Each structure stands twice: as C-alpha cells, then as structure tokens.
Amino acid sequence: MNKTPYVMALLLILGVPFLLAAPAFLPLYWIMIMTEVLIMGLFAMGFNLLLGYTGLLSFGQAGFFGVGAYTMALILSHGGTSVFVSLGAGVIAAMVTAAGIGYLCVRRDEIFFAMITLGFGMMLYTVAHNWVELTGGSDGLPLMMVPPLSLFGYEISLFDPTQMYRFVLVMVMIGIWILWRIVRSPFGLMLTAIRENKERLSFVGADVRRLRLVAFVIAGGVAGLAGGLFGLFNAMATPDFMHWGFSARPVLMTVLGGMGIFFGPMVGAAIYFGLEQVITHLTQNWMIFLGLTLIPVVIYFPKGILGSVVAWSRKRKNAAS
Amino acid sequence: MVPKKKERCVVNESPILDIQNLGHAYGDYLVIRDISISVMPGELTALIGPNGAGKTTFYNAVSGRFRPSRGRVFFNGTDITGMAAHKIVPMGMLRSFQITNIFPNLTVVENVLVPLTLHHGRGFSLFRRLSRHAALFDEAETVLERVGLADAAHRPAHELAYGDKRLVEMAIVLARQPKLVLLDEPTAGMNPEETDRMIALIKELAADSGTTFFLTEHDMKVVFSVASTICVLHQGKLLAKGDPGAIRSDPNVREAYLGGSIDD
Lengths: 321, 264
Hints:
The complex is a heterodimer.
Chain A: H1 4-25, H2 28-54, H3 61-77, H4 83-105, H5 110-130, H6 132-135, E1 141-142, E2 149-151, E3 154-156, H7 161-183, H8 186-202, H9 208-234, E4 236-237, H10 244-257, H11 264-280, H12 286-300, H13 305-320
Antiparallel strand pairs in A: 1-4, 2-3
Helix pairs in contact in A: 2-7, 2-8, 2-9, 2-10, 2-11, 3-4, 3-5, 3-9, 4-5, 4-9, 7-9, 8-9, 10-11, 11-12
Chain B: E1 17-26, E2 29-39, E3 45-48, H1 55-63, E4 70-75, E5 78-79, H2 85-88, E6 93-95, H3 108-119, H4 134-147, H5 162-174, E7 180-184, H6 192-208, E8 212-216, H7 220-226, E9 229-234, E10 237-242, H8 244-249, H9 251-256
Parallel strand pairs in B: 3-8, 3-9, 6-7, 7-8
Antiparallel strand pairs in B: 1-2, 1-4, 4-5, 9-10
Helix pairs in contact in B: 3-4, 3-5, 4-5
C-alpha cells in the first residue's frame, strides 16, 4: 500500500495554512528569509529533476535563473504592467534558452555534461555582465517600480514584504505542483530509468537524448520562474544571479536535503539559509561552517537530511510489516 | 563449410533477420568478418564460439550498439544497419545483455512498466499520473506471471537473487512483445537449477509466443537442448551453420572446439 498520497495530503492540510498564516506570528525579518528559502528551494527542486531523477549534474542552472530574472526585469522596466506576464515571459525565455543549450549538452554524460553546462552558464553570465546597454552591466537592472497585482478586484502591492511572501508562496506551490505531476507521470518513470540504466532504456526503445532534453527544458523553466521571483523579491536583476557560484547553490541544497527526494532540495534550502542566519551572527566566515556541515552530511548521510529520514521511516515500516 | 550468399534460405518465407557479409574492425583489427546468417521466423538459432570469437561484437553490430564497418543487417526486410537502438526496438527486435542489465533501484514491476510505457508511446506523457494507467499495470502483471516473478513485483530489483534478476531482464524484453529477441548468454553465471528454469522458459516462449529467439551461449548443454540451428563462430568468421546433429559431427567444429568438448 502506497501511503505517499496521504502523507502529501496531510502536509498540504497542515503546512499550507501554517505557511499562509506565518506573517501573523513570525517577525518580518524571518518572513523575508522564508521568501528566499521558497524561491531558492523551487530553483533547487527543478535542478533535482536533473540530478536526482535523471542523473544529470548541471552546473549552469544559474544561467536560466538569470534569464528569467532579466526577462522579467526588462519587461517591467520598459513599461510592462503585468507581473504575471513578465514572469511568464521569463519562464518561456528560460525554456527557449535551455532548449538551445540543452540540445548541445544532452548527448554528453557526467563530467562532460557538467562542464559544458558550466561553460554555457558562464557565457550567459558574460552576456549579462558586458551588454551594458541592455542589462546595466555589473550594476544590474533595478526595478524602479513593481506594478501591483490585481486579483479579483483587489490591488496587492508587492512592495509589502508580507504580500510578496504570500505571492511567492503561491507561485512556488504552483511550480511544485507541476514538478510533482511530472515526477509521478510516465515521463517521470522514464527519467528515473535514465538515471538507473540509460543503455537498457535505449535498448527498450527510448530516445534518451530527447527525454533528457525535455527534462532539461523543464528544469530550465523552473529556474526561470525562480529567477523571475528572485528578481521581483530583490527588485533587481544582477549578473551575480548567473555566476557559476550561484549555480553551485542548488547543487549544495540538493545534496544537503536529498538527491532524488522530492522535497529534499526545499529542506536543503531551509538548512542552507537557516545556517547562514545563525552563523553570520557569530562570524562573517559562514561558508567555513557550511563546509563543515556539508562534509559530515556527505560522509554519514549520503542520502541527504530528508533522504535519510525517508529511508529511516521506510525501514521502520518494513520492519513493522 | 562456410555458407555462401546464394545458399541462404530460399524457401517461400522471408527471413526475419538477414545478416549479409557483416564485418567489424577496431582500428586495423578485424574482429568479425564476412558473416552471413539468415534466421527464419520461429527458428531457434544459437551462435556459439570460443571466447574471443567475436560473439559480443557481432551482437553489438547487429543490435544497433554501433555501426558495423562492413555488411548489411535486414530486419523483416528493412535495412537496419547502423540504426540507433531506439529506432530498431519499435520494429520488434530486442536484446538482452551478457551482464545483467536492469533498473536496479526500481521495483520489479516498475522495471516492466518502463518498456510497457514506451511500447504504448507514453514516454513523453508528462501530466497524467502513471498510477492512472491501469492497463499498463495489468499488462505488467501478465508479463511478470509469464516469467514467474509476480510475487516479487513490489521488491526493488537489486534485492533479487541473481537468477531472478536475469528473469527481470527477460521480462523487460518480453514486455515490448518482440518479434525477435537476441539473448546474449542468457544462462551465464546461473546455477544448474536457474539454468534449467531459463531453458524451460525460452523453449516455452519460443513455442507459443510467436517470438523468434537468437542466442549466444557458452554452455553446450543449453545450446543443444534448445537450438534448432547452430552457427559456429571462430576467429571472427562463420565456421559452420547447421542443425545440432550436423554441427556435432562437423570435423572443423571439433577441431576449433578443443577436440570434442562440444559433446558434453
């Protein structure tokens, strides 16, 4: 008997009202941290579709994140009036970019795939950094104004961090829902089969390259959505969003939380930002402590934090039955 | 007695697999050369040969793992030489591998659902839940019953005993309802009991599933108990082809095969 749907339902029933009500009892500062966790968690969950499910390590996801952010920022700073349209355009632009780059990457495996995606990511970074007329160069592209959302006759200002948080929460949940449907679909099974044994898969008739390309485009689209939201949240897009150091974040979050575990990267994102908050109060060198956390996780919990919890509960269930 | 091209089967039926002058070189070294074999539907052919005779190279060249340097391969009359595996498979030709090739961390039933999904053209179905495709699960159950793994359906494939893993691979192949199956040493590494089970399964499937089997094998007991036609590969060339009786008494084969170990 598969209990996953019930666990998910419980999570939704308890978790969503909690998250929606969070601004009522959490300080604003933490609400802003949570906004960031949600955005980066979504970014990492899209990345996990590649690493955890398909077995592809992309080091260029920040490129698509940045394309989403810049597209959104360009539209809103050139007279665009709809947040939804600008975000949607960001997603589409990221997917188109991912399709072009992915076409050249998916025929390679492992380290070669990682290096090619890294290379393309850095090319996108360079474009954002050097095309000053379009992107504002290293200063970034600030958003002077963010048009209010008009929903059911209400005007919601996204300059209010609480409203921004709720808006991000809803958008992230939509992104998660789409990913959830995908991993549970026949296509999701194909992706897992690629990770497990791509040769056997192609010898039962699958076009592995095309499957990988579609996965790459989806992950690119999710990165574009996360990037657009991150640009709105920061009221600007900067080349830093596209730097390869930024691409390392979803990798770290996914490894921390659990590769191939659906919510693993979100948990990883929460740990990442939680640690950052706690440790930056004590020292400026918080990355040292991130490293010190990461090493034992990789050595003693190779399935990640959430991955280990899931494995442990499965083991208990099997022992009981 | 190397069969000449004109000697290939000329009965009214046309061959399901027709290999013409197949050759393959790694660099300058010709691993296999000038191999012509045709297989009629329903004929159970075994390819034997000492280690290093080129059996695996032959399989890889035929099944689309790489393009052979020379020769042509026809499947049901279609030229499939050098075609990618994912294009050959939908026509109905599948293969197994010498080293067990399954999806280890998927459950047994998922291992079979993978080919079934592809068989029904659902590989790019992105939103409908897999669990809603009830017909696929029914079919998977039928396939697993066929190979005797129905009880293990929900166990991760890597937990199974070695012989059962090989049956999982058989189930993966059968799920696509193949017309022709190339088996690469299906009983390699099996204990006698598992070997007998595999032989029985192959015989049964060959008799009533309408699938043609072609296998390589080093276990002569297996070869002589299942094959109706035997091809002997030696130093990259086809040394002999014929029914088991003819092969057993062929002096060239006896010589190539270490003076008579072929009798066991």
